[in-house]
Design brief:
Mean pLDDT: 93
Number of helices: 18
Shape: globular
Low-confidence stretches: none
Strand order of the largest sheet: 7-8-6-9-10-11-12-13-14
Structural class: alpha/beta
Radius of gyration: 24 Å
Number of strands: 20
Helix content: 25-40%
């Protein structure tokens, strides 16, 4: 209806928009689910429930000037197309917040690492005394935390970038490009095109922080530079605006910041993330001493590559959010041998064949579980020994996977080695989300650790 804002799809993003619009605004929402806490709150906020636009008959009840579509809704959904055909502007939450809330905006994307870099950047800027908030694809939604004048550090998924036609961040950060969400985008090139939307409106006065070790991003950086964008590059392999030198020290603009051993996060990929954080914070005015302190202080996000426990000589590492080949490759490279790799879940359509060489080099045993377990066993079974966990329930399957890993390391490696959970798949076939899967893994590790500490008589009882 003219004069109303339609929020298409609730959940975290849509509900945050309705809360921000408040009861004084004329709003409607569309949600497939009949009930739920978010639907109840939307109605309490005074929002009108709308019918599906593509199923309705033509008429002014379905003519909106502005539609804010949740990222979970495909951008070419028939309902969104129907709304556009009637003259509605269809955008996403991030675009809407940027249009309506003045401030500094940092957009951070990439196939892997964007959540860590978002949180790390916001924490560093806040510790430096800036009014910095983090939101977007990371919890909470941007609409829940945005305020005039703040530095908005925004994690952006490819789904969010699809619905940002004019978004022009002051600083754009692209960490890497791999394969993800092919089931939604249809091809790698379409996925990369969605990521490139982050750069679409950059120009003079804006900054692009780019990974110079990524071949595609190197090309995009050169094109942005030619268009007048201030490009800042980081690298793990060669000198750049920010890089790791041969001694392991992180250097920015020729001056040392910290040694990589001083970081409280694990893995080569986190060193690259630290370089991106340093350049991003510098781009909005943080001084080197504050950046150095922020790099040292960050301890990581739950569900990202981190220690999950120890059972005798076996170390457990959890990277539950490693659902893409790029992220899994980074986790495998960072984990010493002997290595048992736990993987499987709801496949996301990515081609996993590019991991074959790394799996053959690094993995001593693959324990496959979840819906994609058989496919992973088929993909890598001719390269390394495999165990398939057929248990369909999440927590029992995770306990069985951890037990199989321990059994292998005890039998073949003297009870020493590393067990890495890097699923290469989404979690929804067996768990609520990646955090629930991480919790199941940590619970299984803790149970084995407690059992290992029990006196022999008690353990045998």
């Amino acid at each position: 209806m003219r004069g109303e804002v339609l929020v298409y799809g609730l959940g975290r993003s849509g509900l945050a928009v309705l809360r921000r619009l408040g009861k004084e605004s004329r709003t409607a929402f569309f949600e497939l689910r009949e009930g739920g806490a978010d639907v109840a709150e939307a109605l309490d906020l005074g929002s009108r429930r709308a019918a599906a636009p593509s199923a309705s008959e033509s008429g002014q009840d379905y003519d909106y000037d502005l539609v804010i579509a949740a990222p979970g809704v495909p951008i070419d959904h028939p309902d969104l197309n129907a709304l556009r055909s009637r003259g509605a502007l269809v955008i996403g939450e991030v675009e809407w917040v940027w249009r309506t809330t003045p401030g500094v905006y940092i957009g951070i994307s990439g196939t892997a690492g964007k959540g860590s870099v978002t949180r790390w950047t916001a924490d560093t800027l806040a510790a430096a005394g800036m009014d910095a908030v983090a939101g977007g694809n990371i919890e909470p939604a941007l609409a829940a935390v945005a305020r005039p004048g703040a530095v908005h550090v925004v994690e952006m998924s490819s789904f969010q970038l699809e619905r940002c036609p004019t978004f022009k961040p002051d600083v754009a950060v692209l960490l890497n490009l791999g394969e993800d969400h092919i089931d939604r985008h249809g091809s790698v090139s379409a996925y990369h095109a969605a990521k490139r939307n982050l750069l679409a409106n950059l120009g003079a006065g804006t900054t692009f922080v780019a990974n110079d070790d990524d071949e595609i991003l190197r090309l995009w950086a050169a094109e942005a530079e030619a268009a007048g964008v201030n490009v800042r590059r980081f690298s793990l392999t060669h000198e750049a605006d920010a890089y790791r030198n041969l001694g392991g020290r992180l250097v920015m603009d020729g001056a040392p910041l910290v040694h990589s051993d001083e970081l409280h996060v694990l893995g080569e990929h986190q060193v690259a993330n630290a370089l991106a954080v340093a350049l991003t914070c510098a781009a909005v005015g943080a001084d080197p001493s504050a950046i150095t302190a922020g790099l040292r202080a960050f301890t990581g996000l739950p569900g990202r590559y981190s220690a999950a426990g120890q059972v005798g000589g076996v170390r457990f590492l959890e990277d539950s959010i490693a659902t893409r080949p790029l992220a899994v490759a980074a986790a495998l490279r960072s984990t010493p041998k002997p290595l048992v790799w736990l993987a499987g879940g709801q496949a996301k359509g990515a081609d996993v064949s590019g991991l074959a060489g790394l799996v053959a080099e690094k993995v001593d045993l693959l324990v496959a579980l979840g819906a994609s377990g058989p496919a992973l066993q088929a993909a890598f079974g001719d390269l390394v020994p495999t165990v398939l966990v057929s248990e369909p329930r999440g927590r029992p399957a995770m306990r069985a996977a951890v037990a199989a890993a321990l059994e292998h390391l005890n039998a073949h490696h003297g009870g020493a080695g590393n067990v890495l959970l890097a699923p290469l798949a989404a979690s929804f076939d067996q768990f609520e989300d990646y955090a629930d899967r991480a919790a199941a893994f940590r619970e299984a590790v803790a149970a084995n650790a407690a059992n290992a500490r029990r006196p022999p008589l008690e353990a045998d009882a």
